[in-house]
Write a structure and sequence with these properties.
Layout lengths: L5 E7 L5 E8 L12 E8 L25 E8 L12 H11 L19 E9 L2 E4 L5 E4 L4 E5 L4 E3 L6 E9 L4
Antiparallel strand pairs: 1-2, 3-4, 4-10, 5-8, 5-10, 6-7, 6-9
């Protein structure tokens, strides 16, 4: 059974009383560039600091990777690598779709090694379902199974689903400065 992603958001009414703002099952964002995968852009904040209370702003999920002090809460269901076709379509159309639906997502990715990327963020990752492999420099890899927590600290990496089933990863990204 594939888990449905349900988003519940709280807030305040005009008197400052806590209320339920919304409760719904989220629809995924899909792009041909990452064939068969589903992005759930749950919430995001801008930096340099998040605000709560009566004057709190709504969410932001663009650009895809947060700027300094910003955050993103994302669930990503990866299709098995073996299910991805060799040709996913016209490169210009594929890039335009990503720019429209997941603005800025491909900016940190390497041209000569399209899965490898480096972001200016601290990423808290949690494997919810399935299996994933995170590749680091020199081919070093770590295998993630359900319940695995990973702290990714701005290192060069790539994600692979080498299993025959979809996997679901939860990410909280915090925009950071590089030293």
């Amino acid at each position: 059974m594939i888990t449905q992603i349900r988003q519940i958001i709280t807030g305040h009414d005009e008197n400052g009383k806590s209320i339920l703002v919304s409760d719904h099952v989220m629809e995924p964002v899909q792009v041909a560039a990452i064939y068969g995968s589903e992005f759930y852009m749950v919430w995001g904040t801008e930096g340099p600091e998040a605000r709560v209370g009566m004057s709190a702003e709504g969410p932001t999920t663009t650009p895809f990777f947060p700027r300094l002090g910003g955050t993103r809460f994302v669930l990503l269901r990866y299709a098995p690598d073996s299910s991805v076709p060799e040709n996913i379509g016209d490169p210009d159309e594929v890039a335009a779709e990503v720019a429209e639906k997941l603005d800025g997502m491909f900016e940190p990715f390497e041209a000569g090694n399209p899965k490898m990327h480096t972001t200016d963020s601290i990423d808290y990752a949690f494997c919810v379902e399935g299996e994933m492999w995170m590749e680091l420099d020199d081919g070093q890899e770590v295998h993630l199974t359900p319940g695995t927590c990973l702290v990714q600290r701005g290192t060069r990496h790539a994600w692979h689903n080498r299993s025959d089933k979809p996997s679901l990863m939860l990410y909280v990204l915090v925009g950071a400065s590089r030293s």
